Amino acid sequence: MTSTKRWLLAGFALLYICGASVSKRNFKCPSGCSCSKETIICVGTSQIPRAIPAEFNSLFIEGNKIETITKNALRGLRDLTHLDLRGNSFQCSCENKWLMTWLKNTNATVSDVFCAGPSDMKDKRLNDLPIPPGECISTGKSVVGCRSVLIDNHVLIIVTQLFGGSHIYKFDDKQNKFTKFQTIEIFNISKPNDIEVFQMDGGWYFMIVDSSKAGLSTLYKWSNQPDRNETGFFSYQFLHEWFRDTDAEFVEVDGKSYLILASRSQSPVIYLWNKSTLKFILHGEIPNVDDVVTVKSFQLEDELYLALTCYIGDSKILKWTNKQFIEVQPLPSRGAMILQPFTFTDRHYLALGSDYSFTQIYLWDVETKTFHKFKDIYVQSPRSFTVMTTDRRNFIFSSSFKGKSMFYEGLQTHLDAPLTCDERK
Q1: 174 with 111: CB under 8 angstroms?
Q2: Angle CA(285)–CA(290)–CA(296) in degrees, nearest 5?
Q3: Which of 32, 41, 158, 381 allows an S-S link to 60, with CB 3.0 to 4.6 Å?
Q4: Closest alpha carbon to 341 in 291, 303, 378
Q5: Cα(358)–Cα(403) distance, integer angstroms
Q6: Rounded alpha-carbon distances, angstroms, from residue 382 to 135, 330, 359, 362, 386
Q7: E strand or H helix that includes residue 98
Q8: Averaged pLDDT of the chain
Q9: Is 12 helix (H, G, I), strand (E, B) or coil?
Q10: Bridge-partner residues for 354, per DSSP?
């Protein structure tokens, strides 16, 4: 070996040793953990510390609050010989499928890992469970829209996400669960914000509303042509580019079909279904309304109304009159994110939810033909209101963005809150 080659090899070896030394010397022991030369012990953590140097061989995370371990959490720990995970609250669901595989293949000594849930898995050893076959259905934590639809014998769930793509899941009778049926084409979708599903002229459609400046709100149509390998929803028409759309609402009135698109950057626009071209064409707009977050349609006394939620300024109630929507009532609503119509025992209400004040319940007055302030209820940053009715009782569920989601019960002429849901994030 020449002198030059020896110097090069020595240099590479020195770089490798120094690099390893530096990475370990610069490693900062995570908060809540104590670190020695080759061991890390953590208490009171909800996840495995990040960026652990490969030279550590013992990791003690017992007695913490860990429910799942991300797939890359143990990557690079080539010298790991001991891992203690006892006393955690592992959910033995599909999200931990990779961990089941890792436990069966690792050479490290790993403590027994017992399942805390789901209920049918409780107290079973994760190491002993069979690895579930097939692909896991995991929609992640960026879901912005989820709608169900029944088409012929297909039970479908449409899920849109900010990250990881948008997908359609179909219920499989043989497996007794939902499996991925189709990945939605999202060539022109940059930031999905809402889904609107509707049936029109015997066909099924759904709309993904895009809230970015560079995206296109897109209409999809159901096609069932097995001979051409086309069974599913496929992009059909692109609408309303570069307007930061926030919500869509499909309405049928006077024998015609309309699609209303709300936006943060311009007035809501109305599209009319053209039965000749089988496309939506621009019909008009709703003037003097800005920064609309949601649009909801509802019927009162055989008349069609719209509830427009405005984050800045007043929210609006509009009525379909002479082939157009006319404003009939403003509602003060600084910071409003949802204006939801609902009905209890023939009484008609509006729930106006704001990020800055109490949720205001309005009651329809049959004499004045307007909504009057009825009651305030407290829900922190509400995002939706859903009505559930039984034979004897009426409930409204309010989801919260920042605090506790709530159940309220309608008791004749007022609302009470006997139930509180678990906190949702």
Answers
A1: no
A2: 70
A3: 41
A4: 303
A5: 13
A6: 34, 20, 8, 16, 11
A7: helix 97-105
A8: 82
A9: helix
A10: 336
- How do beta strands 109-110 and 82-84 pair? parallel
Phi and psi of 101, rounded to 5°? -65, -40
Q: What are the pLDDT digits (tens) for 26-38?
A: 677 877 788 888 8
Q: What is the pLDDT of residues 86-112, one digit of tens each?
A: 888 777 777 677 787 787 778 888 888
Using CA atoms, how far apart are residues 101 and 126, in angstroms rounded to an integer? 10
Q: Which residue has the tokens 């030059």?
A: 4
CA atoms within 13 A on the CB side of 89: 9
Residue 234's nearest CA partner among 252, 246, 222 is 222
The strands making up 82-84's β-sheet, listed across from edge to edge, are 33-35, 39-42, 58-60, 82-84, 109-110
Cα angle, residue 361 at apex, residues 396 and 384 outer, rounded to 5°: 45
Residues with Cβ within 8 Å of residue 192, at least 6 apart in sequence = 144, 145, 160, 161, 162, 166, 186, 208, 209, 210, 211
**pLDDT tens-digit series, residues 182-207:** 999 877 788 899 999 999 999 999 99
C-beta neighbour count of 346 within 10 angstroms: 5
Residue appearing with tokens 């530096």: 22
Is the distance from CB of 237 to CB of 218 less than 8 angstroms?
A: yes
Q: Please give the single-letter amino acid code of residue 231.
A: T
Q: Where residue 52 falls among pLDDT bands split at 50, 70, 90?
A: confident
pTM over 0.85: no
